[in-house]
Amino acid sequence: MIKLYEHPLSGNAHKVRILLGYLGIAYEGVHIDLPVQPEKAADLLRHNPLAEVPVLIDGDVVLRDSQAILVYLARKYGGETWLPSDAADQARVVQWLSFSANEIYHGPNLARVYYLFNFELDIELAKKRATRVLQILDARLASRSWLELDRPTIADVACLPYVALAGEGKVELAGYPNVVAWIDRLRSRNGFIPMPGFERPLAV
Ligand SMILES: N[C@@H](CCC(=O)N[C@@H](CS)C(=O)NCC(=O)O)C(=O)O
């Protein structure tokens, strides 16, 4: 069975949980305490020298980084649906994996960890970046249901958690109705696995 090293509040781990849920793949979760204390996390470090979750183990495949794991699961178990093999369509989807790892990481993710885990960082800059992320997504979703293609792909999965949890970084979703509707579309799909914080009613 697939093993996932995770923490319930990790949005990066949650990207993986969401795709596993949509694909209907059972997995065994391995809880890792955060922040990681390297001296107490030898098992995790053996698989990921960066000392971060998520890590996925599927047979002899060991992967770190949520984006890489989404690519693996989509191609291995999702046929053409979640990450197509067509060069242009694949690149269109991957644009949003990078958006998740850069713009979303530096915006809604950092604003959230400031309030939730007392990280020392420039909170005003993180909030400014989070607002820009929401503006970009709301404009993108004004005339379409999904970030790319005619169906949800790992582009949507990669961007979902930290955007849906933006309120925990005191960046409210009110005023971004297209983003809120997109979150609801993803939440109402078969197999969706919620995360603490996702059950908050979304303000429009
Ligand atoms: N690029 C990685 C980032 C992973 C990451 O930052 N994970 C956090 C939890 S969301 C972590 O494990 N941090 C280690 C710590 O806080 O000690 C990914 O997308 O998976």
How would you describe this protein?
The protein has helices at 11-23, 42-47, 66-77, 87-117, 123-140, 154-164, 177-187, and strands at residues 2-6, 27-31, 55-58, 61-64. It is of the alpha+beta class. The protein has 2 domains: 2-77, Glutaredoxin, CATH 3.40.30.10; 87-187, Glutathione S-transferase Yfyf (Class Pi), Chain A, domain 2. Helix 1 (11-23) crosses helix 6 (154-164) and helix 4 packs antiparallel against helix 5. The protein starts with a strand and ends in a 17-residue tail after the last helix. The mean pLDDT is 95.
Low-confidence spans: pLDDT under 50, at least 5 residues? none
- Rg (C-alpha, Å): 16 Å
Largest sheet: number of strands, sense, barrel closure: 4 strands, mixed
Quickly count the helices.
7
> Mean of the pLDDT scores?
95
Distinct small molecules bound, one entry per kind: glutathione
Q: Count all strands and give the number.
A: 4
Helix content: 40-55%
Classification by helices and strands: alpha+beta
The CATH class assignment of the largest domain is: Mainly Alpha
Strand order of the largest sheet: 2-1-3-4
For this structure, the CATH topology of the largest domain is: Glutathione S-transferase Yfyf (Class Pi), Chain A, domain 2
> Beta-strand percentage?
5-15%
CATH architecture assignment of the largest domain: Up-down Bundle
* SSE sequence, one letter per element: EHEHEEHHHHH
Cα(first) to Cα(last) distance is 40 Å
